[in-house]
Amino acid sequence: MMRQVNSVTVTDRHAAPRAGGLRGAVRLTGVSKVFGRGESAVRALDKVSLEVPPGEFTCLIGASGCGKSTLLSLVAGLEQPTSGEVSVEGAGEVGGGKVAFMFQEPALFPWLTAAGNVELALRAGGLGKAERRQRTAELLETVRLTGFGGKRPHQLSGGMRQRVALARALAQDADVLLMDEPFGALDAMTRDVLHDELDRICGSRALTVLFVTHNVREAVRLGDRVIVLSSRPGRVIAEYDVPIERPRRIDSAPVAELAAKVTDRLREEMSHDAS
């Protein structure tokens, strides 16, 4: 496996344990996924081995159809691998880590308020009514939506709806947060603001994050590490540490420099695929 590292001095955001201690690790060992059978079978992933240590923010990029979303579904347990092993470790346990999933669309229940959508996730955790309301208020404050708990989704902007979706994901108290292009449908300014918010939240919580995106600069802006997948079937063909001091800006020179290297690798892969 090729590993390329930018020469900028690294500042490790995870050098000291976060609040509550680091937890959550994801391991894929020789994982393949085939959909269908016979001549119509489609191999989405091929012998993917990947380890995400506790507390790391790992971004996955690759051409459309390379299996990025399939990989997240395998980690979430929504799909089972055709071969190989997938494991998620929680705090002090192996194979029992909790996973939360955040999609490109917020998928909020339109008949519930913002607070109601978050509280629904807490209800599934068995919390009492008073504790749910207190925890919901704390989570809305975490995503900076204090005062908007009584609004329904149609009364909120796209960015605010994604903040509610993030609060709902955090409500599950998961060890691993899976994010499938959560900001892909947002305008550049809103996306930039949410990058800052996600950075802030991940810097204060014990979260391991797997983040899928088509935006190379977004991957470098957010990630501790960027994993590049080949065109279908998806294989890990490169990984890049992101040793750029935080806070970062998506338009900064170091981010642009590393993003250009990652983009060149993607173009190389796509040119091979087309030939």
Strand share of the residues? 15-25%
CATH architecture of the largest domain: 3-Layer(aba) Sandwich
Poorly predicted runs are 1-20
Give the tally of β-strands. Answer: 10
Instruction: Look at the structure and give the CATH class of the largest domain.
Output: Alpha Beta
Spatial strand sequence of the major β-sheet: 1-10-9-4-8-7-6
Number of helices: 7
Question: What name goes with the CATH superfamily of the largest domain?
Answer: P-loop containing nucleotide triphosphate hydrolases
In terms of topology, how is this protein built?
Elements: E1 2-5, E2 25-35, E3 42-52, E4 57-61, H1 68-76, E5 83-89, E6 99-102, H2 114-124, H3 129-142, H4 158-171, E7 176-180, H5 188-202, E8 208-212, H6 216-222, E9 225-229, E10 236-241, H7 253-274
Parallel strand pairs: 1-10, 4-8, 4-9, 6-7, 7-8
Antiparallel strand pairs: 2-3, 2-5, 9-10
Helix pairs in contact: 2-3, 2-4, 3-4, 6-7
Question: If you had to describe this structure to a student in words, what would you say it looks like?
Answer:
Mean pLDDT is 87; it is low at 1-20. By secondary structure, this protein is α/β, with parallel strands linked by helices. Helices cover 33% and strands 23% of the residues. It has a seven-stranded mixed beta sheet with strand order 1-10-9-4-8-7-6, with helices on both faces. Strands 3-2-5 form a three-stranded antiparallel beta sheet, with helices on one face. The radius of gyration is 19 Å and the shape is globular. The protein has helices spanning 68-76, 114-124, 129-142, 158-171, 188-202, 216-222, 253-274; strands spanning 2-5, 25-35, 42-52, 57-61, 83-89, 99-102, 176-180, 208-212, 225-229, 236-241. It contains seven helices and ten strands. The protein has two domains: 2-98 and 174-274, P-loop containing nucleotide triphosphate hydrolases (Rossmann fold), CATH 3.40.50.300; 110-171, no CATH class. β7, α5 (188-202) and β8 (208-212) form a beta-alpha-beta unit. α2 (114-124) crosses α3, α2 runs parallel beside α4 (158-171) and α3 (129-142) crosses α4 (158-171).
